[in-house]
């Protein structure tokens, strides 16, 4: 069981790493244009906080035998901060740069508060407190594609919903759900199980509008916003 748990976790790390890298073409275009245009950084800022909380959950002082949760979220945090660095460098409005900085500062303060509370006052309920907090952020991240669903519904087109990215998002949720089941980690299981449901619905939506929607080309967004970033344990 331990071997299977590790194998699934490694596969989950690989899938999640691929999803973390999925916005690279977007940021390459930003680099080429030397401007962020209408690109919004908020999903990436949310992912930063999500990674930080799951890194904390993966530490042995909170939950033992969760090193694979710690590794992928550590890598994800570095990648997200690099994305935000590119955004700040090419933001053509000082207000945008200040806004990103202020949000990151607030996230740092919130992290310090959560860690302090968990370490000093919640010795016997530390796993519960951190796990619930991580699940809240994870569910928020899995709910991000809802905006894309609305766009698909409004346009009756799947131009805004890349198939392979949607499939990878579903695979990511399923993989981490299995990981949570193998050693019954309720917090990994709940949020990623829900993420798997979201992913299945998204693919179902894709299939419906691929066969029944409009075949006309619609204007694609100038940048691909975060719609399938790995979440939670992933």
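Sequence proposed for the structure above (234 residues):
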């Amino acid at each position: 069981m331990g071997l299977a748990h590790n194998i699934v976790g490694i596969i989950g790390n690989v899938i999640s790493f691929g999803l973390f890298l999925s916005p690279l073409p977007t940021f390459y275009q930003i680099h080429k244009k030397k401007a962020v245009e209408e690109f919004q950084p908020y999903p990436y800022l949310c992912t930063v906080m999500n990674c930080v909380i799951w890194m904390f959950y993966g530490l042995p002082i909170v939950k033992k035998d969760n090193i694979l949760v710690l590794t992928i979220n550590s890598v994800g945090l570095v990648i997200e901060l690099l994305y935000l660095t590119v955004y700040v460098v090419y933001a053509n409005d000082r207000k945008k740069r200040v806004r990103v900085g202020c949000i990151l500062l607030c996230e740092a303060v919130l992290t310090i508060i959560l860690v302090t509370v968990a370490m000093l006052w919640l010795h016997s309920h530390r796993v519960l407190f951190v796990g619930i907090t991580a699940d809240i952020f994870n569910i928020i991240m899995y709910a991000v594609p809802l905006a894309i669903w609305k766009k698909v519904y409004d346009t009756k087109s799947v131009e805004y919903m890349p198939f392979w990215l949607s499939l990878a998002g579903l695979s990511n949720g399923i993989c981490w759900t299995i990981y949570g089941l193998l050693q019954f980690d309720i917090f990994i299981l709940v949020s990623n199980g829900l993420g798997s449901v979201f992913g299945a619905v998204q693919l179902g939506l894709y299939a419906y509008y691929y066969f029944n929607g409009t075949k006309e080309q619609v204007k694609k967004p100038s940048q691909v916003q975060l719609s399938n970033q790995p979440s939670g344990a992933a």
